[in-house]
Amino acid sequence: MLTLESKFSDYVEALRKAGACAEVVAIHDEMLKKNPALTVGDVYKAFSEDPKFEEGWAYWVLELMGKELDVKVREIAIAKIKNEMTAFQLDLKCSNFLTTAEKATVIAKYEGKLPTAEKELRDGIVTRATAEVKP
Amino acid sequence: MAVTDYKFAGTTATVDNGTSVDWSNPDYAKADDTSYASCAVPKNGASDLLTLSNFGFSSSDIPSGSTIDGIEFVMSRYANTDLRTENALYLRKASGRTGSNMASTTIWAMSSPTEKTYGGATEMCGTTLTQSDIVASTFGIELETKSNATFYVDYIKIRVYYTAGGASVKPYYYYLNQ
Description:
- Chain A is an all-alpha fold.
- Chain A is built from eight helices and no strands.
- Helix content of chain A is 62%, strand content 0%.
């Protein structure tokens, strides 16, 4: 489990193992080369404070290896997501590992804003990843 | 409640959404004719907006004074890659984008188009609309897609559910004489 205190090098290795594309891994490797002492917390703080760093990253990393991230790390990624459709997709794809509190945060970002998508979920036309919610 | 016929857009455009990923041949989304507006969206990118307006509703379709009860629209679409959906789908009126994001999370068919229906008889799409909003040439729809695929739209057609208004309010003495 990667926490905010984990070495960023371990995070990059986890990305690699999870199947992140070479292009993305190379960018992370570059950051690591500049500062080998980086922690996950250092990098996520920078991501979260950069308004140009788009939320697509947050969705991507949570879908790719959200299970490997501690809730404090995930909290930063989830906070980055503002778009209601991105939040909805996150709820569908990551429900099997998000905590009850995280799910509530994600649902609050889209609830009542997506009439078609929410109806599709209610009607079972689309479904969440198999439930396996941690307390 | 009454319903109009389906109408097709009279005007289409690709509108910069800060992405510089234009729609090609937006006019091809005006008719059910297997010619397609298309947009090749790069990895981690989003399309510009495909806007469709000037649907040609008139007072003979929706009498003046009618109450608008619901909007229903159908998009015929497909993508060249599996597991793709639209990201944003909004109604437009004179003031611009209006209401809720009506995007669906059902997957766009691959290779050949399928129709997807949005809204319905009592679905106002998160906005309020008057008869004059709908007969205006500015009434329409905008679409944005995302993520590493080429998206194709054959057409979007709209119909409107309404309750005819303008029923005359008779003076009280009319009823006294009944």
